[in-house]
Records
---
Amino acid sequence: MPTFSKFITSQRGAQQILDSDGYIYSRKKSGDTALTSTWRCAKYNPPTKCKCHIYLALADNSLTLGTQPHNHSADGSVPARQEVLLSLKRKAADQPLSATQNLISETLADTAAEVNQTLPNLESLARVVQRSRASSSGSAQHAEATTSEDFILPSTCTSTRRDEPFVLYDGKTDRELMVVVNYFEKTYLGSVTVDSEVRVTPAFPSDFWNHFDRVLEDPDFPRTSNMVEGFHRGFKTRVNRPKPSVQEYVRAVKEEQVMTDFHLDRLSVGKTPSKRRRTCHTHLHDICSFYSTYPSKIDYVFAVAKYFGNDIE
Ligand SMILES: [Zn+2]
């Protein structure tokens, strides 16, 4: 017969009971008597659909088991996992200016390897931080737009603190866009000279940035150094200033090691990193292999643009 162990807090902030066997119960809204409150197994939802109930005596916190037994074994890692996620949420709401990476490594600093193995991946943890912030700052509604057309800049972004207009241009006028187009042409293609059809050699000629051959060879090979930049940016936020002392640098490296251990703990039980890093670019490979069959170069460019999510009419 299990006994009352302690009250714990669910990921959503609701009170739950942990019993001495490691099972968790949520409060049931009905069925209370003057002397007891009614709780049901936290796994009452599909797919488990456990029907086990317990009754908590208000006088001395003693437990009485209902007639239905649990139809599953207890997952001892749940309370620790919930505690980590809850503490991350609280940190996110309390420290709106701290970098997400820092909050996560701060939270994971003392977690055991067994807890790390059950936690969601790093991207999901970052989303926990972002969602917690969005709901505490009231900006969640702006995150709902799925296309750039739907997205409307909130007034907090378009005016200064003195309520003067801040964003002067948020539209599709060609004249303004030509600045970007001209810059692109000059830097990556070379401007056309006035008296001839020849382009001036640009700062970054096409054989420097063109990935056509590389995509044909291995479409999944990274075409940018974005993931390295991401690492550098994340590491920079750990140091806070351009020229850290040796002590500060060592502390930052140790914090980084927390994340490495986190990944290793998860890899050791067969959990791969995020889905995003496993994207497959065979379709892009197809577009490149059919380069010569497109009616015109611009059709080919449109096909590539469409692949990257830019539907140009
Ligand atoms: Zn159960």
---
Amino acid sequence: MTSTPPDPAHPELTPCPGCGKLMHQRSLQCLQCGFRPDLANYQELLGSLGTISSILIGFGLSGVVTLATTDSEKMNSPLLYWVEGMWVLASFLLLAVLVLGEFLRRTEPDEILLVAGSREQDRYGRRCMLLLCVFIAALFLVALGLVLLAFNLHPGVGAVTIVGLLLACGFSWYWLTT
Ligand SMILES: [Zn+2]
């Protein structure tokens, strides 16, 4: 691999870590070899988190409103207050993920993005991972609320929901680890 030296006339061009040819320091993919800096992957992750979060916020809030306005004996159990609390909390967490993620996605680190292990890029990566953790916590709250709601309807429905949840978790785990 021959690394093309940086051109003083074009300081925005930097050698690609993949092939050594000059590429723009803010480009998200090398046109020569297809190398993608970590930042491009982070930005994609943030985009997906934002999309899923906005869907879940809509689901959570409409669920809370439905529970709060349903007037039936079965819907008056203290268990449902927990469900509502969890979904409200999850919606706020997801809102934070949505807003902060969008903010982060539009912020470009000042240092050269392609330099692997640069402090700006590390910080960017840590923030993305933090948002991912908050997102997973919110997802867990939404799922737990669903399970409680199902058990409130009928123990059988609750059991089926738990089986569904375990299947979903197992499938995700299999997907991520193979
Ligand atoms: Zn390249």
---
Amino acid sequence: MNAAGPPDLPDRDRAGQQGAEPARADAPLPERYPPLPEPLLVRGGELADVVDDHTHLDSLADHEVDALLAAAARVGVARAVQVGTDVASSRWTVRAVERWPQLLGAVAIHPNEAPRLAQRGGLDAALTEIAELARHPRVRAVGESGMDAYRTDLTDPAALRAQRESFAAHVAIAKETGTALQIHDRDAHDHVLDVLAAEGAPERTVFHCFSGDAALARRCAEEGWYLSFAGTVTFKNAQVLRDALAVVPPGQLQVETDAPFLTPAPHRGRPNASHLVPHTVRAMADVLGLDTQELALILTRTAEHLYGPWYDLGDPGPT
Ligand SMILES: [Zn+2]
């Protein structure tokens, strides 16, 4: 485990306090989404307060975000980390965390975007803007950044260089701003480990949508890193992932949607959203041999350790 404390608390004068309208608790769930599962509870029968560690809401209209946040709150998933993947979605993330108190933000250039920007000569300017956006008091993570050999051909030296430079720059931004790092690692485990070894991982480092085996999970856990599991852990053919999950200390786990992608069973093929997190939490509890209520509490505590408090927008937060 990593004994680091929560991030530096934000400066009250910079907190997003422009009067956001509260999300409508009765907003109907758009029809394309799967129905609400049984709510996650904690002992005593109260609703859990689990955080969706990684979601993308930037393609939605504001009223749809209202509806999805309200639906998730009804099943014990009242909060989320909204994640940017380029300059536009990272700017949107800052606007979103000023509007919705349920959201904290992560900002970054996605590893598949980095080579494209580099080719056009725009990577440095984009990274400069990400560094600025990362200073917003409700942006509490840098991500998703990392390495991707699935959609980018990393045998191309220019593409490899762009991804590595971009990832290294994001590691530096996370350290400078004292925020967590959310890593995207797709078919690129060795590249990710190389960059982390060369640059030194930030104190709070999270592998988003962990996709390695038990050996990698054990290695990450020993380093004090955190592993966030998505709906993929519920897939029938994902025993390797369940074996990986089984070796992680529960206090180093997170749960996420990566919405609108990676919808958990039994709703594969339909769009994902935070209200489906209970399916994934229940599958994780089964694998870990833990009571779902106990796991829900541990996940909440870890999310707050990673990202700090989600106080109301009108409330300056702890001082
Ligand atoms: Zn993502």
